Automatic annotation (TrEMBL):
Domain Penicillin-binding protein transpeptidase residue range list: 269-564
Chain ranges of the Penicillin-binding protein dimerisation domain: 40-228
Name the record gives this protein: Penicillin-binding protein 2
Primary localisation category: membrane
Highest classification ranks of the organism: Bacteria, Pseudomonadati, Pseudomonadota, Gammaproteobacteria, Thiotrichales
Length: 595
């Protein structure tokens, strides 16, 4: 009894010592083992089209991780116990043999459960048998290893149900893109860490990403969450971004372009649809494209948004702007005729040629037949400085600043460097370079009474301050001339849209490769405006290296006609070229006595 009292007294003293003198130290030790700071991932904001339809959303997923060293140690320990008990069973007899057999069976069960768990993980993560063990061994001395990223919740739950304490999970979010490859170049994509790396995801990453929060939690010995103790930092969800894109037009434009590029056996193609009054980009598509939902099959060269990053010589699509510059400089009138005989213009070794001698032609005919000689003669009438200033006002030589990453500035050299050949070739679109977005923006003033409205990929709550770059009289005159291109006999008659007056221009630009122009490598294009009587939309189409139909009128104009027609219909823009019905002649019955 005395001994028992002594033991109880010692225990009470020990308890008092721990409670009074070592409480703080023990609490710190417990906190080290149980308290954890957990990152609360921010929900990434959505990317929406102009009507609020989703173009990029986040869905919850989980990532599995482990300490490869600990997991290998557990496996080695169970394997060692299994081997040891098997050896003991082989050399024992009697009751000892029964106990050894039971120990061996228990060790075998534990080891088999672990091996079964390994195989379950391999199946869930689409690994080959034995691949998980190889992955753990290959990790070397690493203390952390991801087993899988962005896995569906049901997959991670099935693995967590195995009860392996050495495997943990982290809640994350994965981006899903409803339009897939249709809007891949515009929306872009995020990497595995949910950071924007292309398109709007990249340019607006700070706004979309938000800010992660932190919470202190208590976990048990198996790493399971017991309770949340305190919120250290508030999670700030990302903000939504509204684009100017109309997903209906975007889808139709991509479908029409992809079909045409395939028919022509072309290298690539691009389409831009612009609302000239608001400066909003309603659609922008490129072929080939990529599906941001399927990262495994994406090649890096497909990421490029050609309509924004690639620059090229515009070719004949610049001719309407050359005439506009001449009208603004008052060196010609809209009713003037240009002598193109004998169908060629010599500048020493350099010769500007037309397909044939058009003789003396009007400005509408100059555009309809796409006369290089005529455009050169008009350009030579303009003072170099005035011509350069006009092109600069339209945005040539500087990035559009529309909200995309990687926007090119194009090339527009200073007028002081222009020789006579440069001035002539600038008239029909050579010697300078632009992106398709820049060229589309430059056509905007022709559809907006001479106002250049800042171009944007974001939904505009109000139109930004436009700049008057040419007179309304000039725009009306040039539009009338451009209508001749789409009429019968013009180079762009395939761009006609039933029920609407269309003003446009075809273009074919040979590529400059290795210090010479290649007559077998070219870009074909068509840019047009409709309705011509009440301009609203500018649609530009570019086809890169078509194998057949080697002109803008044959290769690109049909795509323009389809995209423009569908865009006008979807936006409910009334026709301006319906046939006028003739009044019906109602026969008057003869009255009695009439002769």
């Amino acid at each position: 009894m005395l001994a028992l009292l002594v033991v109880i007294g010692v225990l009470l003293l020990r308890a008092a010592w721990l409670e009074i003198f070592q409480q703080e130290w023990l609490q710190k030790q417990a906190d080290k083992r149980q308290l954890r700071e957990v990152v609360v991932p921010a929900y990434r904001g959505m990317i929406l089209d102009r009507y609020g339809e989703p173009m990029a959303i986040s869905s919850p997923v989980e990532s599995l991780w482990c300490n490869p060293q600990d997991l290998l140690k557990v496996r080695e320990k169970l394997r060692a116990q299994y081997d040891l008990t098997r050896n003991v069973t082989d050399v024992t007899a009697g009751d000892v043999e029964v106990e050894a057999a039971e120990a061996h069976e228990l060790a075998a069960t534990d080891f088999a459960r672990l091996e079964s768990g390994f195989r379950t993980i391999e199946k869930a993560l689409n690994m080959q048998e034995g691949e998980l063990l190889k992955k753990l061994v290959a990790a070397g001395n690493k203390q952390f290893l991801y087993l899988g990223r962005h896995l569906p919740l049901e997959v991670t739950q099935s693995i967590k149900d195995l009860g392996l304490p050495e495997i943990g999970s982290t809640r994350e979010y994965r981006r899903y893109y409803p339009l897939a490859e249709t809007a891949g170049h515009v929306v872009g994509m995020t990497n595995v860490d949910d950071e924007g790396i292309e398109g709007i995801e990249k340019s607006q990453n700070s706004l979309l990403a938000g800010k992660n929060g932190k919470t202190r939690v208590v976990r048990d010995a198996n790493g399971r969450l017991v309770e949340s103790v305190v919120r250290l930092e508030e999670m700030q969800p990302g903000q939504d971004v509204y684009l100017s894109i109309d997903r209906r037009i975007q889808y139709f434009a991509y479908k029409a372009l992809k079909t045409r590029v395939s028919e022509l056996g072309a290298k690539a193609g691009s389409v831009v649809v612009l609302d000239a009054h608001s400066g909003e980009v309603l659609a922008m598509v490129n072929v080939p494209s990529f599906n941001p939902n399927n990262r495994e099959s994406i090649a890096p060269h497909l990421y490029r948004n050609r309509a924004v990053t690639d620059r090229s010589e515009p070719g004949s699509t610049l001719k309407p702007l050359t005439i506009a510059a001449a009208l603004e400089a008052r060196v010609i009138g809209s009713d003037v005729e240009i002598n193109t005989s004998p169908g060629r213009l010599n500048f020493g070794k350099y010769v500007v040629k037309d397909p044939r001698d058009y003789g003396s032609i009007s400005l509408p005919m100059l555009l309809a037949k796409s006369s290089n000689v005529g455009a050169s003669r008009v350009a030579l009438l303009i003072d170099a400085r005035q011509h350069w200033m006009f092109l600069s006002r339209l945005g040539f030589g500087r990035a559009p600043d529309a909200g995309f990453s990687g926007e090119t500035h194009g090339i527009l050299t200073n007028y002081a460097q222009w020789g006579k050949v440069d001035r002539a070739t600038h008239g029909y679109g050579y010697g300078l370079s632009v992106s398709l977005l820049q060229l589309t923006r430059a056509y905007g003033p022709l559809a907006a009474n001479g106002l250049l409205v800042p171009t944007t990929i974001y939904k505009a709550e109000q139109v930004r301050q436009p700049q008057q770059v040419m007179s309304p009289e000039t725009t009306r005159a040039v539009l009338r001339m451009m209508e001749a291109v789409v009429q019968k006999g013009g180079t762009g008659e395939r761009a006609a849209v039933e029920g609407y007056r269309v003003a446009g221009k075809t273009g074919t630009a040979y590529k400059y490769i290795n210090n010479s122009y290649r007559d077998d490598r070219y870009l074909t294009s068509f840019i047009g405006i409709a309705p011509a009587s009440r301009p609203r939309l500018v649609v530009s189409v570019q086809i890169d290296e078509p194998k057949v139909d080697d002109s803008g009128g044959r290769a690109a104009a049909p795509v323009f006609a389809k995209v423009m027609a569908e865009s006008l219909r979807l936006l409910d823009i009334p026709p301006d070229n319906l046939p006028v019905a003739k009044p019906a002649v109602v026969p008057v019955p003869a009255t009695e006595g009439a002769t």
